[in-house]
Structures are given as C-alpha cells and as structure tokens.
Amino acid sequence: MSNKIKIAMVTNHFGITGISTVILNYCKELDRHKYDLTVIAGKPIAEENRKECAENGICLIELPSRHQESVKHYVSLWKVLKQNHYDIVHVHGSSSMMAVELTIAKMAGVKIRIAHSHNTMCPNMKIHRILNPYFCKIYTQALACGKMAGDWLFGENEFEIIPNGFHTELFEFDEEERKRVKKELDIEDKLVIGHIGRFNEQKNQEYLIKTFEQVAKVCGDAVLLLVGTGPNFNRVKGIIDNSLYKNQIILYGVTKETRAMYSAMDVFVLPSRYEGLPVVLLEAQMTGLPCIVSDKVTREVDFGEIQWLSIEDAPTNWAKSILQTAVKSNVQRRNYRSKHITRIQSYDINQTVNQLDRIYERLVHQ
After folding, report:
1. What is the pLDDT of residue 225?
2. Residue 259: helix, strand or coil by DSSP?
3. CATH 3.40.50.2000 residue ranges for the chain
4. pLDDT at 334 (0 to 100)
C-alpha cells in the first residue's frame, strides 16, 4: 500500500486560465515520491491542458460541466472523492461558491479541505454573499495568491499567502525572439501594444480596444496584439470588425510561447475590472516590459514597471500614458532582471512549491 499523500486539486473548469496554469505548475513540481496528485475539473478542458497532464503523468479526471449539468457535475465529484479516499482536497476558485465542493469533500470523508482564493471579485456577488458565512465554516485551511485575494474571500479569518509561482528563468527578454515574432506578424517597424488574457468580463478587452483607437488616431504605426481566447471572444471580434482601426489589431489566439510575445511588445496593458495576483503581469515585468494597469489590480505585483490608471478615466488618458511609456530601449529590458532579482525570486516556482509542501506536511501530521 502506498504511503504517498493523496491530493485532489479541484477546479470548476480547466481552460486556458491563470488558475489552470497555477494548478499545472504545482502538480508538475511537487515531489511525486511524496504526493499522489489528481486534477479534478469540470468541462470544458483545454486540449493543451489535457496534453500537458498526459505528458507529465498527472492524473486528470473530467467531470460534466458545472454550468450546463450542475447536478451531474456534483454527483460525479462526490463519487470520485468517495472512491479515492484523498487525504487533502485543494479547491481553487474565487468565491464562496467553493463551499459546494468543500461540502461534498466533507460528505466524502475528506478531513483536510483547502479553499484557495485566486481573485478579488466574482461574477455572482449575490450568491457569494449568501454562501460566505457557511463557506467560512466548511474549509479547514485558507490560502490566497495575495493579500487582496485573501481579504476579499476570507475577511477577518486567518489565511496564508502563496504567490502564484512559475518558472521565472523562462521569462527573460529575448531580442532574437522579438525580431522573429515581429517579422512573422509583419510588424517590424510598428509600436506594439500588447495584452495576454482570457477574453471575459474581468479582463475588459472592450475598454482596451477603445483605448487603442485613441492611440491609433495619433500614431499610425501602432498595432494592438491580443493573445488569448475565452467566452467573450466573438463579442470582442465583433467590436474589432466594426472598428476603423481593425487592420491594426491582431487576434493572435492561444500560444505557449508567451515569452516571445512579451519580447515583441513595447508596452503591456491590463485594464481589468478586478484581479487576484495576475501571473501575466509578473511575466511581462520579468521581460522588462513597461505596463499600464488598472488600479483594481493588487499593488503586490509591482516591481517598479507599472503605471496605475483608473478604468473610470477616459480612454484618451490611457492612450496618452501608453504613448509616453512605450519608449524603453532593449538594453534597459536586458538589464531589468539583475535589478529586480530579489523580488523575482520570491515568485519562483521552487520557492512557492516548497511553501505549499510545508503546508501539506503540517496539515497531514498535525
């Protein structure tokens, strides 16, 4: 019989999202000799994530969609948890709706139930508020990606912060990659305004397009490079199709080569309505990229390359800041890493996984 600690990472879907990336990073880096790890997720499952789980020997259990078949989803979750006798259920989310998964875990006999907050807001505030008092009683350990995310979900209750860790060494500015991508997209002499993110209400791409239109009015050489996909993709595409500047907007889609994308950009823009601790903002800064960011985003991610603006401001204000900011030399970008090495190391996946490992060990043996 295995002496490994059995852990289930639970999320309501497994698309191309920040939460999915964090889960995959944890599962790839945690010690497999010590932990038996399973990802349990409702559909849709991104094919890239399914492939990455298979390549790295991560068990992935797919459930029916929580949104389309909620009863089947929760019944299936209960069966999986009941049959597999997990030591820890680690639920990742952004609201008190996690109470449902945590309750099912308790019903299935799981004694250690972790709620992990990844955001500072949620789409359905009414349900969140109703469930919150009960939610705060059903988890046994609270984790958050940052202070704002923890305060938002757990209030005055105790929680531990684990920054969203990743392979920081992979996100250095690469001049050759910059040249390659710009040539590939035929934007070699253009000012590249970039954005990487899921196309949804939170990321606020509509505001970004309005902002870019103001940039394009005064800078004919500007292009907007949008990387990602999501539920609002068709709506955003419709807005672009009706824009006078549609020929200057590139919908790149999904890619794993994000370092190359950051290297090709001259400024990164994130006009989110809310955020926990956005990994894309950490990655962008690690390539020495100046960033224009909504003041709804936590200041915990600021390495000194961020200019904060309100999304209540007129897009012209953002456009002005973008044009003033996107003038950094490649030499400055190459030197960025050594300048901020201490802050960068705090987000290294090895550090954050070691922290998570210590928490798991403590919970199992207390």
Report:
1. 99
2. helix
3. 5-165+348-365, 168-345
4. 72
For residues 31 and 112, is the Cβ–Cβ distance under 8 A?
no
H or E stretch including 149? helix 147-154
Give the model's pLDDT for residue 115: 99
pLDDT of residue 162: 96
What does the pLDDT read at residue 353?
97
3-class secondary-structure state, position 279: helix
**What CATH number does the domain located at 5-165+348-365 have?**
3.40.50.2000
Query: Homologous superfamily of 168-345 in CATH?
Result: Glycogen Phosphorylase B; (3.40.50.2000)
Residues of the chain with pLDDT under 50: none
